[in-house]
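Forum > Structural Biology > Help requests

Title: Can anyone predict the 3D structure of Tetraspanin-10?

Hi all, first post here. I have the sequence for Tetraspanin-10 but no way to get a structure on my laptop. I'd be grateful if someone could post the structure tokens.
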Amino acid sequence: MGMGTSTFVIRWINFLTMLLAIAVVVFGVWMSTHHDNCRRSLTIPVIGIGAVIFLVSIIGFLGALKNSSILLWIYLILLCFISVGVLVFTVLAFIVTNNGSGHSVAGLRYKEYQLHDYSPWFVKQLNNTRNWKHLQSCLVKSDDCKNLSKKYKTLKQYKLAKLTPIEAGCCRPPSECGYPAVNASYYDMSFHPVSSNKDCKLYKNARDIKCYNCDSCNL
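Reply #1:
Sure, ran it for you. Structure tokens for Tetraspanin-10 below:
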């Protein structure tokens, strides 16, 4: 592949990523106008990602367009930094959350999670009242727990379901509590829990409470 062909490919790839970046920024601006605080909180990260993509893309585009070795070197260095950053973030995320991959429970197709399985740093961040209150309010507003009874019409379907971590940890009490399920979103709370797990007492059938305050939900 000749130099001309290479710059042509770089130019068009970066032109397309510039369009993508503009779309991301526009999406971020749109989110800032939303009434939902959960979505608005993502405005700065989304716009930031779009801005970084646009900056790198325009440097690569101009470098290829003008055949500027300086701009192309800057472009390659930025790509290198971004690649290393993504790699470091991935490794750190794996280290922080690896131990919290969940516990298999006999008779269930999904895993249950416990807060103490995660790294001390991760637990500390979740225990930050401001951080968790914001996350909790977003979870309550989401449809994850609300839609359980719609997704699983019968108790048999619910018991055989492969629940997501949020559905398993935030929408229902831990299985060790032993509360009988009446349906996918309601448990018989008159039953005395067989476990000393504090989550058993924290769970409530109310839509705005559920198990949002449980350690199993603070994933």
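The mean pLDDT is 82. The chain has ten helices and four strands.
Shout if anything looks off.
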